[in-house]
UniProtKB/TrEMBL annotation:
Residue ranges crossing the lipid bilayer per the database entry: none
Organism name: Lachancea lanzarotensis
Protein name as annotated: Large ribosomal subunit protein mL53
Entry-linked InterPro entries: Ribosomal_mL53, Ribosomal_mL53_fung
Gene Ontology molecular function: structural constituent of ribosome
Compartments where found: Mitochondrion
Amino acid sequence: MLTKYFTKVVVRFNPFGKEAKCARLLLSAIPPAQRLSGVSVQNELLTTDTTKKPTVKITFKDKAEMEVDPSGMTFKELGNYFDRHSRKLRLKESIESQ
């Protein structure tokens, strides 16, 4: 997963729900050096009696925001979903640097 273009990551999940594995893998995919260099990572653990829905919301360097419910996705599908926009930013960056 291309995490280079993330500026903010918000993950909300139930640790005992089916979305927990996907959410935890997403959080572990962000390198520690990137967390120190400016990526804001927020996570919220939900209880079984809460009315909030599990979500993963990512803000990119171009201020675009993408939000998805991780309970119906695998980590690979989640990575592909966010990589679509990251690849666009990488292409734009490579065109501008030439």
